[in-house]
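[Meeting: bench + compute handoff]

Bench side (C.D.) handed over the final construct sequence. Compute side (W.E.) agreed to return the predicted structure before the next meeting so the bench team could plan truncations. Sequence as handed over:
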Amino acid sequence: MSVDALRGFALLGILIVNITYLASAYHGTGVEDPGFDSPTDNAVRTLVAVFFEAKFFLLFSFLFGYSFTLQLASAARTGTGFTPRFLRRLTGLFALGAVHAVVLFPGDILTTYAVLGLVLLALHRIRPRTAICTAAVLLAVTSAAYALLAAALWPAHGSVDKAAAAAEAAAATDALRGNAASVITAHLEQLPDVAFLLVFFQAPAALAAFVLGLAAGQQQALTRISAHRRMLRRLQTAGFSLGLTGGVVYAHASLAHPGTAYQVLALGIDVITAPLLAAAYAATLLRLLDSRPAGTLETVLAPAGRMALTNYLTQSLVGTLLFTGYGAALIGHVPPAGVTAIALMLFTGQAAASHWWLIRHPYGPVEWGLRTWTNLSPPRWKTLGQ
């Protein structure tokens, strides 16, 4: 259950970040929506950047690698062929992600997971110590590449052309408020920039998290939480000190100095420190789950985590219905605090709906469909006794 609870927690963090992109075409452009420039608006943006951005997808990625080991163990117990099934699973994820990126949210992570899953499959026999070293080297090399790029850019003192960026964001806002064809066209225009971010920032970090999850799964680390209390405390100490420091630098550079060499350097710092903060979050939650009063916390988070794929796609669906021309077209009309409140309300509703659904069904609806394709046979639709 701790794996499901962690996945539900990661899903909440991902929602709080993703919904900011759904609610404003200005987010991530280097200029903020001119309609929301109050101290409260800026404070919320800073808090989201420090505590959430570039952190929770790492936790989700770690759990992808950890769950991979559970699938391997299940295949070994049942004697079923693992590789063909896993490859079908990856093709299913890629297809879902491609539709998701074009129709609902260009910042899709499923296609990246599907591609990186091939690397994970190739590395599945790697030893835990080697896996940890591989992840550390991958993060260090990526961070060093950003530092070298920042050094090359520093003499130019470049920055975002705010007038051009604002005009582009305003045009995107108008397009996203239009009809379905206009929304999809806007998404397609955003995909090259998103792909660049995925390839050069998210993918290396996600792969490192995959490999760390693989190592943790090989050691069954999440099934023996009480045996790792000292390590969890160390992760909290290092993660909250170094991780939050890096988060502050990342937020300051992204919000106050976008498009500069300083921001590039901050991205490199974040590549190293964000995993530490994500690990501190996970360690804190695991320690809470291992304590007696943790029953309610697990009851809320675990069902949402068991239906993570359904909930992830549903979050984008609800977001597009709220903020684009598919529905209410509220993009650019809701302040950052309101956007965060919507995210919290949406996740609360998803947690309750997931609990209700899983009493009656063993899998979420999208999970059921993906398992049907993966196994070429439909699993049970209803829970026994229902």
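W.E. noted at the follow-up: The chain has 14 helices and no strands. C.D. will use this when planning the next construct.
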